[in-house]
Prior knowledge:
alpha+beta; Arc Repressor Mutant, subunit A; two-stranded antiparallel sheet; 5 strands
Amino acid sequence: MKYVLYMLSITIITMALMYIGIIKERNLPIELFNKLYKKCAKKVLNYLEKNDSITIPEIRNLIQNETVSVIWSKKRLGITDANSFVRNLIDNLLKEEKIERVKGKVNSYKLKK
Protein backbone atom coordinates (compact mmCIF):
# COMPACT_ATOMS: atom_id res chain seq x y z
CA MET A 1 0.00 0.00 0.00
CA LYS A 2 2.86 2.33 0.84
CA TYR A 3 4.44 1.85 -2.61
CA VAL A 4 1.14 2.42 -4.36
CA LEU A 5 0.85 5.82 -2.68
CA TYR A 6 4.43 6.69 -3.75
CA MET A 7 3.72 5.69 -7.35
CA LEU A 8 0.45 7.60 -7.34
CA SER A 9 2.09 10.75 -5.95
CA ILE A 10 4.94 10.54 -8.51
CA THR A 11 2.38 10.16 -11.31
CA ILE A 12 0.37 13.16 -10.13
CA ILE A 13 3.48 15.34 -9.77
CA THR A 14 4.69 14.31 -13.24
CA MET A 15 1.31 15.10 -14.77
CA ALA A 16 1.23 18.50 -13.08
CA LEU A 17 4.72 19.38 -14.34
CA MET A 18 3.83 18.28 -17.86
CA TYR A 19 0.67 20.39 -17.78
CA ILE A 20 2.63 23.44 -16.62
CA GLY A 21 5.14 22.85 -19.45
CA ILE A 22 2.36 22.63 -22.03
CA ILE A 23 0.82 25.90 -20.82
CA LYS A 24 4.19 27.68 -20.85
CA GLU A 25 4.96 26.40 -24.34
CA ARG A 26 1.57 27.57 -25.62
CA ASN A 27 2.09 31.09 -24.22
CA LEU A 28 5.73 31.32 -25.37
CA PRO A 29 5.21 33.47 -28.53
CA ILE A 30 3.22 36.09 -26.63
CA GLU A 31 5.74 36.16 -23.80
CA LEU A 32 8.67 36.52 -26.22
CA PHE A 33 6.97 39.34 -28.13
CA ASN A 34 6.17 41.24 -24.93
CA LYS A 35 9.74 40.82 -23.73
CA LEU A 36 11.12 42.05 -27.09
CA TYR A 37 8.81 45.07 -27.07
CA LYS A 38 9.80 46.01 -23.51
CA LYS A 39 13.50 45.61 -24.28
CA CYS A 40 13.30 47.82 -27.38
CA ALA A 41 11.11 50.43 -25.66
CA LYS A 42 13.60 50.61 -22.80
CA LYS A 43 16.46 51.08 -25.27
CA VAL A 44 14.63 53.93 -27.01
CA LEU A 45 13.71 55.64 -23.74
CA ASN A 46 17.28 55.35 -22.45
CA TYR A 47 18.54 56.89 -25.69
CA LEU A 48 16.06 59.75 -25.31
CA GLU A 49 17.19 60.40 -21.74
CA LYS A 50 20.71 61.03 -23.04
CA ASN A 51 19.72 62.84 -26.25
CA ASP A 52 17.08 65.44 -27.14
CA SER A 53 15.26 63.59 -29.91
CA ILE A 54 15.32 60.48 -32.04
CA THR A 55 14.21 59.77 -35.61
CA ILE A 56 12.77 56.62 -37.13
CA PRO A 57 16.03 55.61 -38.87
CA GLU A 58 17.89 56.06 -35.58
CA ILE A 59 15.36 53.85 -33.80
CA ARG A 60 15.69 51.24 -36.56
CA ASN A 61 19.48 51.23 -36.20
CA LEU A 62 19.23 51.13 -32.42
CA ILE A 63 17.04 48.03 -32.25
CA GLN A 64 17.78 46.17 -35.50
CA ASN A 65 19.74 43.24 -33.98
CA GLU A 66 17.75 42.73 -30.79
CA THR A 67 16.75 39.20 -29.80
CA VAL A 68 15.15 37.79 -26.67
CA SER A 69 14.70 34.38 -25.10
CA VAL A 70 13.41 32.90 -21.88
CA ILE A 71 15.41 30.74 -19.51
CA TRP A 72 13.34 27.60 -19.90
CA SER A 73 13.26 27.48 -23.72
CA LYS A 74 15.83 27.41 -26.51
CA LYS A 75 13.56 29.40 -28.80
CA ARG A 76 14.51 33.00 -29.54
CA LEU A 77 12.66 35.92 -31.08
CA GLY A 78 14.29 38.68 -33.07
CA ILE A 79 13.27 41.57 -35.26
CA THR A 80 12.88 40.51 -38.90
CA ASP A 81 10.92 43.47 -40.30
CA ALA A 82 12.37 46.51 -38.55
CA ASN A 83 10.14 49.03 -40.33
CA SER A 84 6.82 47.62 -39.15
CA PHE A 85 8.18 46.88 -35.67
CA VAL A 86 9.42 50.48 -35.31
CA ARG A 87 6.03 51.83 -36.41
CA ASN A 88 4.23 49.65 -33.83
CA LEU A 89 6.77 50.59 -31.16
CA ILE A 90 6.34 54.32 -31.81
CA ASP A 91 2.55 54.03 -31.89
CA ASN A 92 2.51 52.18 -28.56
CA LEU A 93 4.92 54.64 -26.92
CA LEU A 94 2.75 57.52 -28.14
CA LYS A 95 -0.39 55.82 -26.75
CA GLU A 96 1.35 55.24 -23.41
CA GLU A 97 2.32 58.95 -23.48
CA LYS A 98 6.00 58.26 -22.92
CA ILE A 99 7.12 60.12 -26.04
CA GLU A 100 5.74 62.93 -28.19
CA ARG A 101 6.34 64.26 -31.67
CA VAL A 102 8.78 67.12 -32.09
CA LYS A 103 7.00 70.09 -33.65
CA GLY A 104 8.45 71.23 -36.94
CA LYS A 105 10.37 68.00 -37.60
CA VAL A 106 9.04 65.04 -39.53
CA ASN A 107 9.41 61.61 -37.88
CA SER A 108 11.24 63.00 -34.88
CA TYR A 109 10.27 62.17 -31.29
CA LYS A 110 11.25 63.26 -27.78
CA LEU A 111 10.45 62.28 -24.20
CA LYS A 112 7.17 63.57 -22.89
CA LYS A 113 7.53 65.92 -19.97
